Amino acid sequence: MLAKPDQANQPKLLVDGLAKSYGTAVALKPTHLAVEAGEFLTLLGPSGSGKTTLLQMVSGLVAPTQGRLFIDGKDETQTPVHKRDIGLVFQHYALFPHLTVAENIGFPLKMRGLSSADIQKQVANALEMVQLGHLAGRFPRELSGGQQQRVALARCFVYKPAIILMDEPLGALDKKLREHMQFEIKDLHRKTGATIIYVTHDQEEALALSDRICLMNHARVEQIGPPHEIYARPRTAFAADFIGISNIFRGRVECGANGAAHLATPSGRLRIDGDNLANDAEMALVVRPEHIELGSDGENEIRGNVAEIVYAGSETRLLVEVAAGERVTVRVLPGKPMPKLGENVTLSWKPEAAVLVTP
Amino acid sequence: MSTTAVSHAVSPAPRRFRFGPLWLAVPGLAFLAVFFLVPVARLMGLSLEDADTGAMTMAHYARIFETDVYFRVLLITFRIAALTTLFSLLFGYPLAYWLARLPEHRRGTMILLVMVPFWTSYLVKSFAWVIVLGRTGVINQIGMGTGLLSEPLELLHNEFGVMVGMVHAMTPLAVLTMLPVMTGIDRRLTQASGTLGATPAKGFWLVYFPLSLPGAAAAGLLTFISSLGFFIVPALLGGRQQTMLAQLIIVQVQEILNWAFAGALAALMLTTALVTCWLYDRVFGLSSLSGEPSDGKSGRKGVLRGLGLAILDALSVACSAVSAGASRVLGQRISARMLGFYCALMFAFLMLPTLVVLPIGFTSSQFLEFPPPGYGLDWFRTYFTSDLWISATIRSFGVAFATAIVATAIGGFAALALARSNSRWRGLIFALFLAPMIVPRIVIAVGLFYLFAQMGLVATDLGLVIGHTVLALPFAFVAIAAVLKSYDWRLDQAAATLGANRFQALRFVTVPLIKSGLTAAFLFAFITSFDELTVAIFVSGGVKTTLPKQMWDDMILQLNPTLAAVSVVVFIVVTTLLLAAERLRRSSQA
């Protein structure tokens, strides 16, 4: 057992066909997922996409309808929640209101039967780690939202669980504090080397924190990969739309005789690249705003009127109406010539900057 | 609250309303001052006066402790009240726990199984236990019939009978008081304790139980205080050895006309109740009575807290071991169902005795036999052809109707006033409106009797309405305050910006939106009055008898099947109104 040759390659967490349904309502379709030790994986998706269900099944709070779950190669599907070596940071922290900060953090250690001297030492270390040493004797309600969040993190990191699960932990904080806490979580991850599975519906948070993002939609995994890959190479229109700003042109493939293919869209006929394109197939072309240029340098060209100018500080976004009801977002950096509202402009992009996805 | 600041800006003459919205509470305050505070204070005063000279004396108090007789009654009263509290909490806690964990819509249904026994008349409940526990009662007949018993058990007219009746009467109150605190406990806290490695037993004792403690303590407080003033159950189910303080007071007032001594006994009861309240407030804070999660007080650091946590630690370890053992012996499935099974038993205990009465109302026998040898409507005929019963019934409906209107109006304005006010008097006024629920009814009733005797209101319908309004006011007040809690006051501001004056805003916006709460308040007040015996015993003066008073007189004299028929009517009226009120209350919260 100890000398198993593939021990090194064994994933920390292996989700093998895990699924959950409540009566006829499917909360999660059979899902496969492997998380490596020390990885920071984010489950990203809109509400109802199944990400929280998956998290709760990993934690043991919800029993799966089918499938199995391995932690360090050991089948833990039937292990009750309190015997599973996982940590869960709740959305609203779930700090025990009748216990002090120190008692809250000491709780998991006490459950594991540590001596009070050990508990004291480790709690002090954990408090140090989240810079709350001076608040050890306070009760949760006497703390600010950010402080409560740090206590929740400390309570989870203190017993070094095999996997740490975080269920939208920053959801209750305001934007500024949220960004600050993102750094703290990233820092904790780096310092402790913990394996973290993080649930959020905030794409910016997912891009900022994760080693890999597991994008979920309609109770299944839509796409999984590193943030830059999901951003640059979305596989579906949903993925492109959910992460970052996208211009999506939907249409039918027209294969030319010379191998050149085009997508017939309401905005015009657009040149596309790709192998094995089936004639007449429904596809969508994704072009990020930063890849569209004003003027006719690119190979793909469309024209339209400037319908809206949105100033966003570091950049300005133009909404160009290229067909009835079809608007394209274009990014204009400061210092570049700015068209006027209603002006007729030409937009273009290089074919390699566009990604062909399933609609 | 910023709402008040804004509404002041809207109001054209802010300076005239320095007392603010609290003006609306004035009718209620005046009413309670005259018909609650004054009579109770006067009664206390009487206990310190020499009946002939009016000089101050402690003689009446000295008399309580002079002879063994009165002192024994005191001890018995405390003993029964304390035991009732203990058992109601023990039996009620798991039931409340189970209810609190149900999904909301199912809890709404199941809670009716506690609400119905809670609102069922004490007279009907006690009558039911007489039928169940009597020498020829249901239990003995079944026992003898099946051969399990060779001779009938003595279940009645002893401490056992009283305790069964008291615990049965008080458990619903305990459950309903604990429940709001328990449902307020965040479910994720128990889940969190699980993910942090606590077994379910440890999670319960270290997390859930301490958080539920303020609710359990509030339940203990209310059951203890209510038990102190009880007389129906001990009178009907107990023997001479179980005479309680309230019975003694009734005898002093009605038979011996010794007001001063009755006052001294009432003062003792009131003092005990207030001291209990004070103790509770010191430890938990009175705010947890209204179902709010514990405020600052419960989290205080100190020896008490350390000791409490240590005890819980020990309990958690013990229970964790026991439950691990139990689930090994019984298997996971059975041990997981134990609680549900227990709750089914409790519901049966709470509901069945009353249901036994129903068929007896239709008996063809001359006796209270169960099951009835045959069925007929004879006893209903007796009831409906008796002038005495019918006039009592009509009076009860009339008095209850008037009481409900007055209590809803007064309570409604008071609740409105307190919801809008942020005055520092708020807490005190709130407490005053709840006080008639805390002060034992017998104390209020005797005090009112003395006052009414001077005002010439004894044996009048008006006297009954006033007395019942004092008792119904807290229920109406709480029902309306609960609806107003979730009421969005910005709607009133919106109405004001749209040109409505205060009265129009109230008339066209607030009242329609809280209508269901008002109706619920009306129905609860109606039931309170319809069921009321204590005030009726004194104030009806034997002439203007109400339905409960007539039942009481009959029960003391001679138990007969007419009582069962009357009980059926009372039970159906009260249950119907209750279900209507509950439905309304719930739809108003949705």
Automatic annotation (TrEMBL), chain A:
InterPro entries: AAA+_ATPase, ABC_SmlMolc_Importer, ABC_transporter-like_ATP-bd, ABC_transporter-like_CS, Mo/tungstate-bd_C_term_dom, NA-bd_OB-fold, P-loop_NTPase, Transp-assoc_OB_typ2
Any Pfam family the entry gives: ABC_tran
GO molecular-function terms, A-Z: ATP binding
Gene3D superfamilies: 2.40.50.100, Nucleic acid-binding proteins, P-loop containing nucleotide triphosphate hydrolases
Alphabetical keyword list: ATP-binding, Nucleotide-binding, Transport
Domain ABC transporter: 13-243
Family: Belongs to the ABC transporter superfamily.
Name of the protein in its database record: ABC transporter ATP-binding protein
Organism, scientific name: Mycoplana rhizolycopersici
Lineage: Bacteria, Pseudomonadati, Pseudomonadota, Alphaproteobacteria, Hyphomicrobiales
TrEMBL record, chain B:
UniProt entry tagged with the keyword Lipid metabolism: no
Domain ABC transmembrane type-1: 74-280, 393-581
Membrane topology qualifier: Multi-pass membrane protein
Pfam assignment, any one: BPD_transp_1
Keyword line: Cell membrane, Membrane, Transmembrane, Transmembrane helix, Transport
Family to which this protein belongs: Belongs to the binding-protein-dependent transport system permease family. CysTW subfamily.
Protein name: ABC transporter permease subunit
Species per Swiss-Prot/TrEMBL record: Mycoplana rhizolycopersici
